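pinging the channel bc i need a second pair of eyes. not urgent but kinda urgent?? the chain im working w is below, pasted from the shared doc
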Amino acid sequence: MEADFVAACVEEIALEGLDGITLPSLWLRLAERPVFPLALDDRAKGFIWRTILQQDCIGMYILPEPRPVIVIDNRENYTDPETGICVEPELLPEEFYPVHPVNKDGVRGSCGTYDTRQNITEEIRQTGMSLEDVMKLWDQRLVLVASQKVRTRALFGETSNPNLDITDLTYCILERIGRSRYEGELMGGKVLVRAFKAYKLTPKDVFYHRKLLFRFGLIKKQPFVTRNVTNTMSRLILVHLPRFFKLVRTRYSLLLTKLCQKIAEYPNHVCERKICRETLGVDSNSFKRIMPLASPYLKLSNMKYADLYPDSAEEDHYHVNGKERSVSVVIMVKKFPPESDDEDEEAGESEEEEEDDVPEQTDGMMHEFSCRLENLPHERVFLHKMYERLEAAGSEGMTQRACEKLFNITRLEARGALRSMQKLGMVAEPFMKDFGRQRIGVYVSSRYAQTSQIHRKIEEEKTKLLQLYHGSPEKESKTPAKKGKVGDTIIKSMESVLPDAAPKTEEEEETEDDSTSLDTVRLNSQLPKPTIYMTNVSLQRVNIILAAVREAKLIENVFTLLKLIISKEANNSDVQGRIDRKSLLRLISRLAKAGQINSIKTTIQADNRQKELHFICDPSVGPTDPLVTSAIEQARLKHFMVHKEACRPSKSISDVHDQSMLSDPGTDSSMGGAV
């Protein structure tokens, strides 16, 4: 019995770490032990004190200021009785052990008073001071500190290698975990982040420290759900030293275990939602609160009644109105961790978190760590799975939304995975494709990027556009001496229509002529880098407008172009819907700003009537051109049906389109997509 209580006292002192423990806190820790052979009355305390004096592994120190008695928090005091979920208190408990890493002269740990406290071990042992004298003289300034060897053995266990290579900050975290005993330490909670605030320790950093401790077998972990004062749920990790580990079962985890066992009895692990709610015996609101917390294990979905119950009668597959019947179901993605300790529940998480190779271990490593490797499931990396699906899609590619549905992941997870594959060169830059009134990026494997149908169509439209530029009057009117400036002007003008144009460097401008520069910029052989403004439909419409203007020189109204585009897109399967007037005006505005067309607006009047005219002309046709004046006179005869000498002069003959006359309409409202 004596050996039992002595070992218990030494262990409690060692678990407090390098900071040590005061005598009042020691009595409190001993009272909290599950089994302690002595009653903690005054006589027993005196006997324990005399026994501690005989232990060479225990040192006595005097603090500059008294340390308050520790307060042992019980997490069950903050548990919601309805849901069984731990609720974080508004006021965090006082921090009795500020983090201050120490690594001097073979002494390691966390102690803020390491350089200021005074060692009086020999003085107390030589005088043989009693417990009453010590408390009267120093009271809560006296702390008991175990030796480095004893403290390391208390944290690392009997079978672990005490010479493991871990950082000082990792050792301090392990010290805090040991100090928590059976209560455990929440990784990533407010208390831990506040304790390491001076060292800017974020939850992300805590993950890597915990990862190392877990791989060495120094801690055991389990999932834990908390709720803060704003009623937001958080999934954290609760860790213990292996000998203090106890499985925490909240009402939520018990219900989830029961539900998973029920769903496992059904084919394909799919069960109707109504049956699941009846199994738990909860109302609809409670079931709605439970399902978001079970997202790693369960998910809600809809299925056809015929698929869920294939043996049912055919008339049950449809509603009274003839529509096919569907039901809400719960699908089990993976089994909830079992209640028994026989199956290691950390194996599932280690598959996701411990992707690196396990470091080489010595013969003294824990047997539990070697056993865990045997049950570790092996799978391919998630990026490889997604890349295989993208390759299987071929040149058609996949959208980000399709990846989310296929792998049952969130939008941020899908975006991060696709960006990672782009950096690795596995996936090309996304091509933009029109889906009704929206543009959506399509991701294609790098293997099919050059041969994809989208890329081929874009390159075809680019080639047509370059042919129109080479045949434009503006280009023909320039002298050969100004070819370099002309090429630069065309390139800059194209940026407003095709914003994917990459600007050339000064060295390239000096060495390349007009045609070479255009071909290099517009028809390069490398992977294209389209932006949200570039689709093959947009390029096709630009080509139709420019070709019509180049041929007719002057188009009298916008509706002529509108009908022309609609007729040419009638048999085009790539176009969903029809272009409207606003989208066409947006295209005309951008082409006019680029200098590829002239947009001329004028107003004619007769008596109290007036009519606005809008001409789309070739760049060589100005406001005073005979084509424009003739069109104005014909419009007067058409709309007012009077002789041209009887008409009053027009209010304004014409005004050349500029940015103030026709502003960019903004967002697209067309059925065929914005440009």
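so The CA atoms of residues 289 and 536 lie 47 Å apart. and The radius of gyration is 39 Å. — does that match what u expected or am i reading it wrong
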